[in-house]
Design a protein that fits this description.
The chain is α/β, with parallel strands linked by helices and 116 residues long. It has helices at residues 13-25, 36-45, 63-73, 104-115, and strands at residues 5-9, 29-33, 51-54, 79-83, 95-99. The protein starts with a strand and ends with a helix.
Length: 116
Amino acid sequence: MSKHKILVVEDDANLLEMYKTLLTQTGYDVVPTNTGEAALDAYRENHDFSVVILDLILPGIHGEEVLEEIQKSNPSQHVIICTGSRLSKTFSGNVKILQKPFIAPMLLNMIEEVAE
């Protein structure tokens, strides 16, 4: 497997660490961020992410705004929204939704599906 780069946007420090550990051990190159602003800065610096893992409830810039900015910049970007909120809306583009709580294999399978 080539080393895919993943941008993770999660404000919960424990969850962010879990993502980082899990994905790094699985062979991914992980760029962890804990705010929408930091995520957009990281994305503007380097668009070369196979997948963006995005929480919606973030301090400052909301996750939906982060998604909109990323999609403006790269409409084909794959994004996995990981949220504990019940979503009534759908998202356009290459967006998948993973409801929290989830087990690690569910996330890894979803990443494999979209990162190829």
